[in-house]
Amino acid sequence: MAEELDRVDVVVVGTGWAGGVVSAELAKAGKNVVALEKGEEKVRSDYIGVKDELRFDNRYDIMQNLKGDTVTSRNEIDETALPIRSPQTMQIGIDTGGASVHWAGATYRYWPYEFEMRSQTIERYGEDKIPEDMNLQDWGITYEEMEPYYEQWEYMAGIGGEQDPLAPERNRPWPNPPMKETPSLRLFKDAATNLGLHPYQLAAGNMTENYENPDGEQLNACMYCSYCTRHGCDFDAKSDPIATVIKTANRHDNFELRHKANVRRVLYDEDENMATGVLYVDENTGLEYEQPADVVVLAAFAFANNRLLMLSGIGEQYDPETREGTLGRNFNGQYNHAFHGATGYFENEKFNLYMGAGALGATLSDYAADNFDHTDLDFLGGGAIELRQYGYAAITSSGNLPEGTPSWGREYKDTSLKYAYRTLTIWYTANAMSYWHNYVDLDPTYTDEYGDPLLRVTYKFGDNERNIGEFGIERCTEIMEEMGADIVEPGTMPEEFNHVYTGGHYTGGVVMGDDPETSVVNSYLQMWDVDNLFVVGGSAFPQHGGHHPTPTIGALAYRAAEGILMYMDEEEGQLVQANRKSNLI
Amino acid sequence: MADQEKKFSRRDFLKTSGVAAGGIVGGAMFGGVVGSLYSSQDDTQTAEPGTETEGETASSDGEPLDDARTYFSRREDFETLAAATERIYPEDDNGPGAIELGAPYFIDRQCNEFWGRNAREYMMGPFDYTASATHGYQAKITRAEMLLNGVRRMRELSLEDHDDEFYNLDEDTQISILEDFESGDVDVPGAAPGDFFNLLRSMTIQGVYADPVYGGNRDYGGWRMIQFPGPRMGWTNEIESEEFQEIEPEGLRTYQGGGM
Ligand SMILES: Cc1cc2nc3c(=O)[nH]c(=O)nc-3n(C[C@H](O)[C@H](O)[C@H](O)COP(=O)(O)OP(=O)(O)OC[C@H]3O[C@@H](n4cnc5c(N)ncnc54)[C@H](O)[C@@H]3O)c2cc1C
What we know:
Distance between the termini of chain A: 42 Å
Structural class of chain B: mainly alpha
Largest sheet of chain B: none
Oligomer: heterodimer
Helix content of chain B: 40-55%
Shape of chain B: globular
Structural class of chain A: alpha+beta
Distance between the termini of chain B: 28 Å
Bound molecules: flavin-adenine dinucleotide
CATH topology of chain A: FAD/NAD(P)-binding domain
Number of helices of chain A: 13
CATH architecture of chain A: 3-Layer(bba) Sandwich
């Protein structure tokens, strides 16, 4: 029997960038906010003195333990899905700050084209350009409308960067200067410039100077220690929710964060079409609680956002047979079709590749979005081409082997020792589209530790994924050749999605838009028809942009927070007028 | 009473129990399987066991006190495992191989840890490890069990085809047996083709290159070969350098400051 707790104004599920931003903004506005986090409490000192490759890069210490729940996966709608059992192939954020603590910090805005991808594609290339199986949609918001929220997130997070020569001119410069340039980044930039491209320094969530953000939180200049992506920062030098938004929220007595609070349901009043709170289990004691709230915010990452709605019977489940329903529809993400490119092996150069930072890198936008003519191309969209210098420890560096080298034995040892610091890879961060056959629902067989069905992902590549991937490999190969590598190896496009969920760029399923026929939430991430339920995160992306997703998640969280305050203080009800394209009713 | 028991050392035990005379002391029972392997291989490897080990952690034979099996019970299984790791990461002109670096004991310990016990994996059924080649780990058995099953299969094949234990076979024969496991030609109970070998390979490499706190990468031997300096506060002053920086390795113990 669940114990009913005292009512609060807002309950927020999850403490990553999405939940953290909403919590901070509502706490600042004086609302009584309870944030519920499934994982443990983590503080900065949890990440001090633990620079350990095996523990974090090979044992995934910072990722969710899958013992109690995971996701099942299949390619075809008539296949039996299998659970993804090991953190080697399923990495989900957990604990204070979620995946937003172990992110790498690579920062991009999406392009004006990407927010209006359907209408601008039609305008430029005609409707025939859009393949029939693709659910290409506008986001229900424009870049111009997004700009102030991007800026808000970037200043809160202290991003360091320089103006991308091809991007829209920024209203305000990045809050911090770009990161330092290393020989490998210079090599990439020189080669790209020779080819007539426009490289620039990747914008970074790693601090480039000591910085105080607008909420008064202090961040320190990054020291390029290299224990960054998949690790928590030991120095408040990579922006994360622990150093910023959670700290800010915690300064307010009207905010409370409960850890080991595993939310299992949104409580929902069907007659009133209102969320009334959430049900959660205290993972320390096993006891159940009901937390009533005026507003419920799901910010539990794309998987849990979808699953919690489905388990709670909220929204209409998408069915690929009938193509009806919106919840779970347009599930997308950057899987194994993205991040291909070319690898170069250098005989005469040896780089300090054990040094680095998550977002230390160089990039270019010549092949991003619709910055290049697609008339004669067999795909839509684009991506950045990046060279990153994360800083690699010994186990990872021992894997730098030109093709044809055995992976063990005498030749392996000799060759891997030779190339450990003589290998550079560049890749294409390609767009990922949505199709009628890709979606999420509840698995009929596998359950979590409480007996609730797991989320089931049904996903396969469309032609766009294969074609854009090949295009990226060709462009990266040209650049790597110009960089002068002695051996240039073009990447190989996999034939199909391989059920590997390691990049954290999984999105969609609770998508935003202006039409309730094809979206679940409006542009404030407020659920159509359930006025007091907001679903915040990458789950709102109708398709995945050609860049890392997090700044857009952060920007949307600021917009959602603004919407929640409008809803609470001004105009209860829907914040956006629906724009129904079909005349079904 | 308790004090007296403590003083009653292992050496005394050997004397009084009369085992010492049996001649197995320097071999399998206490000398350390790995120690005995040295002598069965290249003579130059007879090594200076434990010359670097600190007083209280070294046993009477000079090997570290924590060089003992806690997962692999049968000596022959462990010797097989050790010989296989050495084939995967052999000693050569670059420096030590997997055995000298402690990889076999690293693996033995990992088997008893959450990784070997699959404590962070989703392990609810139904299971079918044959159902898909692209869904990652689908075995019902744990990693530790998979290693044990695989090692037993290696022994079985060696005895069947070559009339001897794997660890007594010559290098080329050992390699060709391992190749059969790698390609999936040999099956291992409960494991999809190739999975046992991939696991063995990755755990060996991890034993070579993980921080020494885990029992491998002895004396930073792996890091020295690959020129990895280990964790530091940062590299602000070096990050822009044109020259490759060769820096003496330091591990977590140094980084944390020890002191306890
Ligand atoms: C290795 C790696 C590197 C990355 N690098 C980059 C990068 O460089 N640039 C970039 O843009 N993106 C990057 N990403 C992606 C980035 O991490 C995510 O986009 C971002 O963290 C998502 O934020 P979020 O708040 O939506 O989710 P999260 O930060 O994951 O937060 C969700 C929180 O919800 C909690 N939760 C889940 N279910 C429940 C429940 N039932 N009850 C209570 N709490 C729950 C979780 O424990 C978690 O703390 C990376 C991802 C990975 C894996």
